[in-house]
Write a structure and sequence with these properties.
Layout: E1 3-7, H1 19-24, H2 26-39, H3 43-48, H4 57-78, E2 86-89, H5 93-100, H6 106-125, E3 129-135, H7 139-151, E4 156-163, E5 166-172, H8 173-185, E6 190-193, H9 206-219, E7 223-228, E8 235-238, H10 239-249, H11 256-263, E9 269-273, H12 277-282, E10 289-293, H13 296-305
Parallel strand pairs: 1-2, 1-9, 9-10
Antiparallel strand pairs: 3-5, 3-6, 4-5, 7-8
Helix pairs in contact: 2-4, 2-6, 4-5, 4-6, 6-9, 9-10
Length: 306
């Protein structure tokens, strides 16, 4: 049986995530403690106690990646012979995929996405940035309306191709708000601003992308196992490719739907680590099963069927 490991992105965070792994796995507990020391972030407080930081990108991003890596570590502890044909993630999740496929160390991955979140916040703090989910329109129609907006000097860009009929667009909040009615008049069932203060995967992040490249250069290993790129939905396995693709990733749309389609015929099932957001999307993209591993019970149940 062949599998692909998949990893969720920003927006999948929730208070208490990873607590079951932390309390019931020595390996997960050690990972969290080592991550706290390495990143100078109190992850126990960040993940398990009420706080405002969990929704700030510089903390959200390492928190989500840590939760995914804890889930992965627990599964591999229980089933050491399990390996994937591919790994991929949604946006931020691509960095979790790179970590488990040995592109860089786990702790370096957490430090890297901490900086990624900070760079994104810094770019978006200069403008009123945001994101909007558009439901019920095909890709071509959304792209056409984004191009129309850009001709009107509005900053609106297709950012996430999640599944058929669901695209997230990014840009300046006033521009997005002004286009809510335009999307609906074109037939969208919904066009709704998301509770986000960043505009991911669009040209507003040019500076963040350049800064991230400098950090990637320091930590990427020369070669690693196959990861599917958000930027082009193709496999890459080298530092040289990663530098180019991850620089593009922040300023280009996430081709999630296309990535799942690209590998679905070569795997028997998917495993999502730390959340179930992608399982929900996958139901609309592929007939292949997705197992979402959010707690110890999920892992035990999964091991009964594979």
């Amino acid at each position: 049986m062949k599998t692909a490991f998949i990893f969720p992105g920003q927006g999948s965070q929730s208070l208490g995530m990873g607590k079951d792994f932390y309390e019931n796995s020595i390996k997960a507990k050690e990972l969290l403690q080592n991550a706290s020391d390495f990143c100078k972030i109190d992850f126990k407080h960040l993940l398990f106690e009420e706080n405002e930081k969990l929704n700030q990108s510089e903390f959200t991003q390492p928190a989500i990646v840590l939760n995914s890596l804890m889930a992965y570590s627990v599964l591999l502890e229980k089933k050491p012979d399990l390996s994937s044909k591919f790994a991929l993630g949604h946006s931020l999740g691509e960095f979790s995929a790179l970590a488990v496929n040995n592109a860089f160390d786990f702790l370096e991955a957490l430090s890297l996405v901490n900086k990624r979140g900070l760079f994104m916040q810094e770019d978006c703090a200069k403008v009123e940035a945001g994101m909007m989910v558009v439901l019920g329109l095909d890709d071509e129609k959304v792209e056409e309306l984004c191009q129309k907006a850009q001709k009107e000097n509005k900053q609106i860009f297709a950012a996430n191709y999640n599944c058929d009929g669901q695209i997230v667009v990014a840009g300046l909040k006033p521009d997005l708000a002004s286009y809510e009615s335009v999307f609906k008049e074109a037939g969208a069932k919904r066009a709704m601003l998301l509770n986000m203060s960043v505009a991911s995967h669009c040209p507003l992040l040019e500076n963040a992308s350049a800064k991230l490249c400098v950090e990637l250069e320091k930590v990427l290993k020369p070669n690693f196992k196959a990861v599917i790129s958000n930027a082009n939905a193709k496999i890459y396995t080298s530092k040289e490719e990663a530098l180019e693709l991850l620089k593009a990733q922040l300023i280009s749309p996430v081709l999630y739907k296309q990535s799942i389609k690209a590998c679905e015929n070569e795997v028997d099932y998917f495993i999502e680590f730390g959340a179930s957001v992608l399982k929900g999307l996958n139901k609309k993209i592929t007939s292949k099963e997705t197992y979402a591993l959010i707690n110890m019970n999920d892992i035990d149940e999964f091991l009964k069927v594979v």
